[in-house]
Structures are given as structure tokens and as C-alpha cells.
Amino acid sequence: YLDEYSTSKVPEGEGELSISSDIESISDKVYSRLRFIENDLLFLKEIPALNKFISGDVSAKDELASIFKSMSKNKKTYYQIRYIDEGGMERLRVDHIQNEEMVVSDEDLQDKEERYYFKDIMQLSEGEIYISPLDLNIEKGALENRGFKDNPIYVPVIRYGTPLFDDEGNRQGIVILNVYGDLILDVLSEEYAKSGKDIYMVNRDGYFLFHPDTDKEFGFMLGKRTTITNEMGSNFDIIFDNEEGKVFEKDEVYAYKKITPSSLDVYSSTGSSQPYADSLSQIQGDDYFWIIVAEG
């Protein structure tokens, strides 16, 4: 009976129509904030200075760094813009932190050979795009923490990358954009503050990426089983089987909508909660999704 009542077949009252409209609006805002990233990535891929640099012309590095820095300054949403060579070593990286752009010194560049996203992108063909899971950034083998040990402030990121090839078709590494996850999560945070109604976003495994209680977010990276079914009940299993609908739980109604970060047939993976572990599996197209859930 619960499954039957958890569909949109029941008559909608004014409040239910309202939450359906709200969740549609939230979804549209998320899409609008992501739509330019693939174009930026493909623009970087075709820059002549990058082609020169990957072909061994070290004199092109300064010009390329200037282009990376200009994009970082203008967009303000890219935590890192990087060229990583075929061995997994960062060769050029521009960071954007607290409204400042910085070209990272050579001695501070890192080896990313064992990171899941590098391995996954290196398997793609010319022109294919990879989008990583939305997870927490890792630097030097540990979760990046901009707070304190007893009050951590982690850095959510989503990575867009594509492989690079020289004129002979040899792989020469990847170009990759680390996008601040707050670009997406702020949409939900703003809507939560405005409406006062609980809003959530979960990944394809049901883990919270956004929750009014931030301690429940990103449990898959922090050793916590904070999934929507564990926290809110088994009725929420239905959200993984449909594109959108409603869930009725303890006299409350929740609307949900499944969204994908791209309209293109992009590649992704499950990623890994461990710094140097492979992705468990590869996924593609509509198999990469998030689900937004909003209380009525």
C-alpha cells in the first residue's frame, strides 16, 4: 500500500502543487549553474598554448598560466584549473581561494596518478567528458579541512575532465576543472533559508549531499551510514525507481526529482571514499544522477 500511495496518482492539494513547483524551480537553478562548465572545459582543451605545452614547449607555460588565471578570476567557481600529465603529475595548476587566484609553485604541485578521477579520465577517447561524483576534496592524501580538527570545514567539489592527445594521437594527460560544490549546494541552502521547509539532495547511493543538519552530509567519505532510507525511512526507496514523484511519511509529504548534471552523454564513475583507491565501477549518461527531495 505504501508504494501505491507514494506515487503522484493521489489528488494534489494546493500545498502539494506548491512543493512540485518549488522542486522544479530548484532543479532549473542547479542546471543553469552547471551548463557552462563543459564549454569551458572544451575551450581549454583547444587552446594553442596548451597544445604547445603538452608537446614539450615549456615556453608556453606562462601564456597557459595566464589563461587559466583569467578564467579562474572571471568565473570564480573553479577551485582548481589543472593540466596533469600522462604520468599523473600536476604540471600547471591555478587555485581560486577567497577571491584570489594563485598559480601554484612547481614544488607544491602534486602527483595524482593514484586518484580515481585521473585513472578514469585517462581511459576516455578524444572529446569525451568525465564528471566525477560530488564529493570532498583531498589534498596530499587527506580530506582538505579549512576549519579545525574538532570543527572541520570540508570542501565539496565536482570535477570535469577530458583527456589530451598530441598531434600523433598519443595520450598527454588531462585537463581538469575542480568546481566548488557550493555552486550547486548554495541553491539548496538558499531555498532552505527562504522557505523554512526541509530540503535534501542525495547521490545515487542515497547518501546526503545536502541536509539541513550538515553533520549528515557526505557520510560516504566520513565513515557514516547517513543515507536517506536509514535516516528517514524505507518509504524513500521509491525515489530511486522514478524520475519524480511524492513520498508520504509520518503525515508529511515530500516531493522528489531526479536530476543529472549534464544533458550530454558524459562519463562518470562511482569514485572512491579512499584517497588512493580505484572507482568501484564506471557509469554513463543518465546513470549519473542526484535526487532533490523537498518537504511539503
Category by helix and strand content: alpha+beta
The counted number of beta strands is 16
Report the total helices: 9
| Distance N to C terminus | 21 Å
Query: Outline, from the CA principal axes?
Result: elongated
What is the ordering of alpha helices and beta strands?
Answer: HHHHHEEEHEEEEEEHEEHHEEEEE
* Main beta-sheet strand count, sense and barrel state: 7 strands, antiparallel
Helical fraction equals 25-40%
The average pLDDT is 90
Q: What ranges have pLDDT less than 50 throughout 5 or more consecutive residues?
A: 1-12
Task: Kindly provide the radius of gyration, computed on alpha-carbon positions and rounded to a whole number of angstroms.
Answer: 20 Å
Which strand-content bin applies to the residues?
25-35%
Task: Give a concise summary.
The chain has nine helices and 16 strands. By secondary structure, it is of the alpha+beta class.
Describe the structure.
The protein is of the alpha+beta class. The protein has 9 helices and 16 strands. Helix 2 (14-34) packs antiparallel against helix 7. It is elongated, with a radius of gyration of 20 Å. It starts with a helix and ends with a strand.
SSE inventory with pairings:
Elements: H1 2-5, H2 14-34, H3 37-45, H4 48-54, H5 61-75, E1 78-84, E2 90-97, E3 100-103, H6 116-122, E4 130-131, E5 135-136, E6 138-139, E7 142-143, E8 156-165, E9 171-180, H7 182-195, E10 199-202, E11 208-210, H8 219-222, H9 228-232, E12 244-249, E13 252-259, E14 267-269, E15 282-284, E16 290-295
Antiparallel strand pairs: 1-2, 1-9, 2-3, 4-8, 5-8, 6-7, 8-9, 10-11, 10-16, 12-13, 13-16, 14-15
Helix pairs in contact: 2-7
